Amino acid sequence: MKRTSERDPDYSADSEQSADDPQLERHEPPERLSPLPSGALAEKLRWLLSAEAIVQRILYVFIVGFGLCLAGLMFTQVVLRYAFASPFVGIEELSLLFGAWFYFLGIAYVTRDGEHIHGGILTMVVRNPNGVQAVRLVVTVLGVGACAVFGYFAIKYALFEIQTGRLSSYMRWPKGLWSASLIFGFVATTIYMVLQALHQFLDLNARLRTPTRR
To answer: C-alpha 23: how far from its chain's center?
Structure first.
């Protein structure tokens, strides 16, 4: 005799009905778009995506390299401090150097993959998929503006450090090595955010041109 659980009812029939219900489909939140296009648009921009794949690989290698160097410095400092009671002050400067490059290149990398922090309340307030994409586009454009403003002042400061030839306090290395991470980080992040805004705009335009099923 087959028993059915009263605590776990079978929702298969409801699931099949919801899958075929256009009204429910219209309320499904659209997928988040990364800066890189997909589908037919990706086929048209194959040369651009091929070049970007090389940039992505370079970013990945440098991020991993700086991360490993930073971890190695921290381990070395702990050993020198607690095992030999002779810490090396220069490690603090080098850790800031590797940490800055790791951080700012990492910002560009997560923006490239569309994995930066997002707010999830939007899909609870705006139920229309086109409205969701429109709000996301506006947020991305505002993000581009913020990156441009902060990036301008950061790059201005970095160029000042490089041009004046200032040296670090202990290692006596050019401080431009630290400041250059700001240039690469903000420039790459802004470019990826512009590409994301373009991708969102094209997707929203395609959605508006597609008639809504009733």
So the answer is: 33
